[in-house]
Every structure is written in structure tokens, then in C-alpha cells.
Amino acid sequence: MENQEVRVRFAPSPTGGLHLGGVRTALYNYLFARKNKGKMILRIEDTDRTRFVEGAEAYIKESLEWCGIELDESPWDGGDFAPYRQSERKPMYMEYAQRLVDQGKAYYAFDTAEELEAMRERLKAARVVAPQYNVITRMTMKNSLTLPQDEVKKRLESGEPYVIRIKVPRKEQIRFNDLVRGWVTVQSASIDDKVLMKSDGMPTYHLANVVDDYLMKISHVIRGEEWLPSAPLHVLLYQYFGWNTPDFAHLPLILKPNGNGKLSKRDGDKLGFSVFPLQWVDPSNPDKSSTGYREQGYLSEAFVNFLAFLGWNPGKGSQKEIFTKAELIEEFSIERIGKSGAKFDIEKVKWYNQQYLRNLPNAELAEFLKADLQKHQIEESQDRIEQVCELMKERITFGNELWQESQYFFMTPTQYEEKVIKKKWNQQAVNVLTEFRLELEKLADFSGTNAKQTLYDVTQNQGIKMGKVMQAVRVAITGVGSGTDLTAIIEWLGKDEVIARIDTALETLKDRVKA
Ligand code: GLU
User: What's the pLDDT score for residue 2?
Assistant: First the structure.
């Protein structure tokens, strides 16, 4: 729609944990709104009270906050079009359904559950593949199209339960232009007479969704592909009401890693990854709780960057994959959303996290380490902690790995990696280490580089290639056979600590010297 303010909405139903596909929908709406200086709205679609789950709304709020998806209007902060919870808008919908009834575009239906079931059985027996309440069957049912008017009136007045159904035209083409898929054309005969108002006085999703998008002046409906089959019905409703349709963009599905079908929570459980941004505890079934990306140590910026690329790319042959939120806003466009499903790849999420960790300022990385240092009652200066972060950040995927990987900086090893000891702890290594610690003692100008030179001189002096004893030296100082640059470790530990560690290793391992 030209010249209209961009207003988009994320419209989740509070029926459980918010799947990462939902987070992606919210994200694309948000990026589109910001890019076009429009408004991002959140509407809670809670008209189906049978599927309502306690805590789901709060979970949605927290998830979006964690991802940095800011809302301009929402049930929590209000806005000009409040209320933003459909259950609180309940009194509005009847008027619209009634309008359609009055214009002959919808009708009352009084059929009981048993009568509906009997109709389906009848049609099945007649080999109808998908039995529906539609343009043909409606005439055999109990509704205001088939019953005499005074009987309809009587039934309504006596408080008999009824629903309001849309009267879908017999033979019409319904067409709309989807911004992702292009023109979509559907024959009206394939659409059934969907219920608009339920017998409990609540609207169905279809009616509430269309009425609210209209009342809230939504310009673009950006949502998951699973809603594409509903879109023709929505378009028909807009036509019936005489309203302009918003633009539609249906996002591609998020697929299982092997590309075979939609990614479900069960796939995640089976393959060992979560489909939820945050930990989700189902109040009615706490055993079925799931962990989330936040709890697993992912940075929200990395998670968001990953999600942005799950179905969208910046195009123009761009190789760039790391985008800040501001850059995503700048680059985002609906034209660059793919039509085909996007395969989920947990390795890619990890890769993003690694990249983001690497780019964090050391002071921020230090926070991860400080928590563990405190737990182990180790005191270190901020400066020295940051030095360790600088040395280690290329080697970790998660913040909490910092401690696991860098413990040897802060604690003198008491155990030594067995594999290395078995292979490398021999007389040559012991001789080198013994002379090395003596020379270190004498070294006036201690630094990592000077210490390394000293080690080199010692090996030369003993006629040994340095490479042959390097791992033994490393294991004596750190306890493990691999890690970050040993020169840097030595420099950080300082002369006295290095000598003390070599002494401890020589003493502890004295019976392990390989002949
Ligand atoms: N309430 C629907 C959902 O849960 C919203 C679909 C739409 O955006 O129209 O996804």
C-alpha cells in the first residue's frame, strides 16, 4: 500500500513456548518496521481459550526482550489502539460478524456436534475426500439459510447456541499478491464456510485477526508460511467488509537439518538442540521443560544474527555474515526473503556465537570468568583477567568455556594429562626442564620471549630439538598438552610461578620418567 505508514504486527497465541520460527517472524517484522520508520506492534491472539497456557505470554515478552526486539505498541506498554489482547477486545467482534450477517455474507448455524459429525460421515460414505461445511453442504444443514426466518428468530431468542459462518461464494477467484511468493490464486469452491464467531461468543482466529489488522491499521502482514492457506479466506473477509487488504508476506518454513519437513521441538530433542530462545517450563507438564539458547550460553546478538539469515540474505553477492542489529535494519528487505524453506543448522548458530564472543571487549568477556573465579575464591586483578580473555577468546564457543579452558592460568596443576605423560615424559624432557628452571632463576630480564629463548638455549646446549620436548614443558606448566601460546602463558604466570610449577611437576612425576 502506497503512502501509508508502515505498521506491522507480531501476533502470537499464548499456547506454549515461543518456537524460534516465531522469534524469526517477530524479528523480520521488527527489522521491516525499523527500516521503514514504521511501527512494530505486538498483539496477543488468545481467543482460543482451550489452548491457553499460563506463563506463555510472559515468556513471549521475555524472549523478545532478550533478542532486543523492541515494541512500539503492546499489551504491556499500551498504544493508541489498545487493548492489544484479543480476549480484552471480545465485545468488538460481534458487531463485525453481525454486519456480515445483515449483508448476507455470513449466516447463523445451529448444528450440534453430532449433526456435524453425521454430515461428515455421510460425505465420507459418498467418497468425498475432505468433507466440509461449504457452498454445497450448507444447504443440508441447520442454519439461517435453510430454516424459516421465524424459526431462526425463535432459536436466537431462546438462547440456543449458534455460530456465525462466512458464506463463501460459489465460483469466484480469490487473488492476492504475496510479497514473497508473487500472485496466489485460489478458487472459492476450495474454501469452506469457516466459523467466524464461536458459540461461546468468542471470535475465531480468522475474524479477530482480520478485524484487528484493520482496526490497528496494519499495512503489512508478515507471518509464517503455515498461514498461507488461511490468507485467501482473510482476503475474502477484507472484500466482504469493503476494506483495503494489507500487503502479505508469508515467510518460508524453517526445516529440519536434513531438509525433510518442518523443524519441530521433537527434532530438536532428538538431535540435541533447543528450538526455544529461553528455557521453557510448561506449567502443566514440568517434565516436558526445554532448555533455551540463553541458558545454553548463547549471546542474544549471535542468535538474532543467525535467525536473520534463516530465510533472508543481503544479496548483491555479499559474503558478509556478521551484521549488527543496526546493519540488519539498514539492509533488510522483503524482496530478499527466500521462497524455499531454510534448513536449520546448529553448527551455524555455534559459529555465530564464536564470532560474537571473539568480538566482545575483553572487559565483557571477563565477566564470565569473574563468576567462576569467585566460585573458586581466586583473586586476580581486572587487568590480568582481561589478558587471559584476550589469549583465550579465539578458542571458545561459549562464554562459560572460558573457565574450563583457562583454569591453568589461575591454578597450579596437580594432575597432568596422562596421554602426554605416557608419550613425552622422558629423561630428555626432565633434563631440559631441570636446566631450564635453573636458568630461569638466573634470568634478570624475565619476559615470555626471553624465557622462550632460554628454553631454546638449553635444548641447544643439550643437543636436543626443541620440538621434541615442547609438549612436556607445556604439560609441566599447564597440566595439559595443548592450549594457547605457551610464551604468553609463561609471561602471564611470571618467573616464580613458572619455576614453582616445573618443580612441582618434576617432583610429582618423578616415578613416571620413561626410559
Ligand atoms: N495467532 C497467529 C499465530 O499464532 C497469528 C498468525 C498471523 O500472524 O496472522 O501465529
Answer: 54
